[in-house]
UniProtKB/TrEMBL annotation:
Species classification: Bacteria, Pseudomonadati, Pseudomonadota, Gammaproteobacteria, Vibrionales
Coiled-coil segments on the chain, per record: none
Ranges where the Sigma-54 factor interaction domain occurs: 147-375
One MF annotation (Gene Ontology) recorded for this entry: ATP binding
SUPFAM superfamilies assigned: CheY-like, Homeodomain-like, P-loop containing nucleoside triphosphate hydrolases
Domain called Response regulatory: residue spans: 15-125
UniProt name for this protein: Sigma54 specific transcriptional regulator, Fis family
Listed PANTHER family: ALGINATE BIOSYNTHESIS TRANSCRIPTIONAL REGULATORY PROTEIN ALGB (PTHR32071:SF113), TRANSCRIPTIONAL REGULATORY PROTEIN (PTHR32071)
Record key words, sorted: ATP-binding, DNA-binding, Nucleotide-binding, Transcription, Transcription regulation
Organism whose genome encodes this protein: Grimontia indica
UniProt xrefs under InterPro entries: AAA+_ATPase (IPR003593), AAA_lid_NorR (IPR058031), CheY-like_superfamily (IPR011006), Homeodomain-like_sf (IPR009057), HTH_Fis (IPR002197), P-loop_NTPase (IPR027417), Sig_transdc_resp-reg_receiver (IPR001789), Sigma_54_int (IPR002078)
PROSITE patterns, sorted: RESPONSE_REGULATORY (PS50110), SIGMA54_INTERACT_2 (PS00676), SIGMA54_INTERACT_3 (PS00688), SIGMA54_INTERACT_4 (PS50045)
Record GO biological process: phosphorelay signal transduction system; regulation of DNA-templated transcription
Length: 451
């Protein structure tokens, strides 16, 4: 099917755009290519209209004169990810060079076969699709990282994630409930060479002891309560990552079997006759002090050592104040999309409420509060009333008695709040604090704050 740009009334999803002033050439190119994709043909003067009315990843330029080359340059500036194929005359190498310098993806020399043109267009569309997918994955990774946070403590934590992701060491994550331990475990998997393999989660606190054994290790066919083989979670994670969440709640009877698996990388199914080799990276997490539980004989000390070849501690949200507003904005964007809302941000009183709250439930509580606020908000912004934060958990000053420390803590707190209120605008932040911009930059560097 071939359309002409002036008649377009709605956006066409990824149609091929052919640009040519010669109507005969335009028609010939369209006939060759309409078998592999929908085609929109337009003369050069209608290109702006066509690009505004359609979504395209590939443009075929039917000529290579000065006007066409200039148009290539304009399209590349307007839509740099669009793949532009320029048809040039074989006897004129200069046109090909000019086209490539102007931003063309490739050139096609006349005379050419129909099959060559189709192949070039297919290749350009495939490249555009791959680049789009890479960007989508990068955007997902950026979003996941923003959910974890961007404060100096979290940046340091994420650096550790990058280090352990490329190793096979067992990793133990400590952190209060709601700090994002599962997200961090997922980040380790996603950044590892195993990212294309499975990521299997087992919550040791939510599965009864009599079921956890079979859940982890599986059951062989012929067992009295199993008519077929049941693959355990450890086997299911083969080639990928096993995440043992709330490992501190694992019953002692299971701990010995898990220890053996970690030491030998072998799995014995219940009622099985042979051990099965598995290739699994293990990440565990807990909000409990495992050393204390070991002292109470509730957790094996040797298992702690096996699980925690590397340990990572996620600081609670109250200790990384810089992340509060960043996370709140990230959640607002998410809920705007999933709930079809269009809230534009937070009012000053809601920012003050967010920054004054101690967040005993950490990131999970913040996410829930923003979710509720998006539901309750009547205006275009979230207010303090929408957040409904209780006074019970307002931060105590917690300031030390030493005057210098008191002054520095108050100074850091003031700069952090001013940055949040001004949404990172340096001039506005300086005005709020009543200092010059150079002084503000000095304070930001002094306290390692995010801009």
């Amino acid at each position: 099917m071939v359309d002409t740009a002036p008649s377009l009334t709605t956006k066409r999803q990824d149609a091929l755009l052919i640009i040519d002033d010669d109507s005969t050439s335009q028609r010939q190119l369209s006939q060759i290519l309409e078998d592999i994709t929908s085609v929109v043909a337009a003369p050069m003067q209608s290109v702006a209209t066509a690009l505004n009315q359609m979504l395209t990843s590939v443009v075929v330029m039917g000529s290579s004169d000065a006007v066409a080359i200039n148009l290539v340059r304009e399209i590349h500036a307007f839509a740099p990810r669009t793949k532009i194929l320029v048809i040039v005359n074989s006897e004129n190498d200069g046109d090909a060079i000019l086209a490539l310098k102007a931003g063309a993806t490739d050139v096609i020399e006349r005379p050419f076969s129909d099959e060559l043109l189709r192949m070039m267009v297919k290749r350009a569309r495939h490249t555009a699709k791959l680049e789009h997918e890479v960007e989508r994955l990068r955007a997902y990774e950026r979003q996941q990282q923003s959910i974890l946070g961007g404060s100096p403590p979290m940046v340091q934590t994420l650096r550790m994630v990058d280090r352990v992701a490329n190793t096979e060491v067992n990793t133990l994550i400590y952190g209060e409930s709601g700090t994002g331990k599962a997200l961090l475990a997922r980040a380790i998997h996603d950044r590892s060479p195993r990212s294309n393999g499975p990521f299997i989660t087992v919550n040791c606190a939510s599965i009864p002891e009599d079921l956890l054994d079979s859940e982890l290790f599986g059951v062989e066919k012929g067992n009295f309560d199993s008519r077929q083989v049941k693959i355990g979670k450890i086997e299911a994670a083969n080639g990928g990552t096993l995440f043992l969440d709330e490992i501190g709640d694992m019953p002692p009877s299971i701990q010995a079997k898990v220890l053996r698996f970690l030491q030998e990388r072998m799995v014995d199914r219940i009622a099985g006759q042979r051990a099965i080799a598995v290739d699994v990276k293990v990440v565990a997490a807990t909000h409990q002090d495992l050393n204390h539980r070991s002292g109470d004989r509730k957790f094996r000390e040797d298992l702690i050592h096996q699980l925690g070849e590397v340990t990572i501690t996620i600081p609670p949200l109250r200790e990384r104040e810089d992340d509060t507003l960043l996370l709140a904005k990230t959640f607002l964007l998410q809920f705007n999309q999933t709930m079809n809302r269009n809230l534009v941000g937070f009012t000053e009183d809601s920012v003050e409420a967010l920054m004054s709250y101690s967040w005993p439930g950490n990131v999970r509580e913040l996410q829930n509060k923003v979710h509720s606020a998006v539901i309750m908000a009547d205006g275009t912004q979230i207010t303090a009333m929408d957040l409904a934060l209780t006074k019970e958990h307002r931060k105590d000053s917690g300031l030390p008695l030493n005057l210098r420390q008191v002054r520095e803590e108050a100074e850091r707190h003031a700069v952090t709040r001013a940055l949040a209120r001004a949404e990172g605008n340096m001039s506005q932040t300086a005005n709020l604090l009543g200092v010059s911009r150079p002084t503000l930059y000095t304070l930001i560097e002094k306290y390692s704050l995010q801009r």
